[in-house]
């Protein structure tokens, strides 16, 4: 079985596309730790936070033609949804959130006809 490549490892990790790849990778991180069995929730939050920090640093170091990741941070929070299932949510720093929102707004406008 092949492990999927991280977005920051890809040749097309450039500009705004790097932000889209980052969102996919962040979802991969939070999903993994939310569903990890055998560990206490506090341990999983700690591990997810460490993974998110590492991911953000990797994007800051490897994404080209963007400064969207420089000096930014993420806080990982956990909660139980109404069915009792654990959910992990990344809370983005304001600078990163602004860049991501701008990307989402542009992509939303391009899909409207």
Could you characterize the architecture of this molecule?
This protein has 113 residues and is of the alpha+beta class. The protein has three helices and two strands. It has helices spanning 15-35, 41-62, 94-111, and strands at 74-80, 86-92. It has a two-stranded antiparallel ribbon. Strand 1 and strand 2 form a beta hairpin. Helix 1 (15-35) packs antiparallel against helix 2 (41-62). It is globular. The mean pLDDT is 92.
Q: Approximately how much helix is present in the residues?
A: 40-55%
- Biggest sheet record: 2 strands, antiparallel
Uncertain regions spanning at least 5 consecutive residues: none
Q: Structural class of the secondary structure composition?
A: alpha+beta
The rounded Rg comes to 15 Å
Secondary structure: number of strands: 2
Brief summary of the model shown:
The chain has 113 residues and is α+β, with helices and mostly antiparallel strands. It has three helices and two strands; from the N terminus they run H-H-E-E-H. 54% of the residues lie in helices and 12% in strands.
Task: Record the SSE blueprint.
Layout: H1 15-35, H2 41-62, E1 74-80, E2 86-92, H3 94-111
Antiparallel strand pairs: 1-2
Any key phrases for this structure?
113 residues, alpha+beta, two-stranded antiparallel sheet, 3 helices
């Amino acid at each position: 079985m092949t492990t999927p490549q991280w977005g920051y490892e890809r040749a097309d990790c450039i500009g705004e596309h790097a932000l889209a790849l980052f969102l996919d990778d962040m979802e991969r991180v939070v999903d993994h730790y939310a569903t990890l069995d055998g560990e206490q929730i506090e341990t999983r939050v700690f591990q997810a936070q460490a993974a998110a920090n590492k991911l953000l640093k990797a994007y800051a170091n490897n994404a080209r033609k963007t400064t969207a990741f420089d000096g930014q941070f993420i806080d990982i929070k956990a909660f139980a949804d109404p069915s009792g299932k654990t959910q992990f949510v990344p809370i983005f720093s304001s600078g990163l959130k602004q860049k991501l929102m701008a990307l989402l707004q542009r992509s939303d406008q391009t899909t409207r006809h």
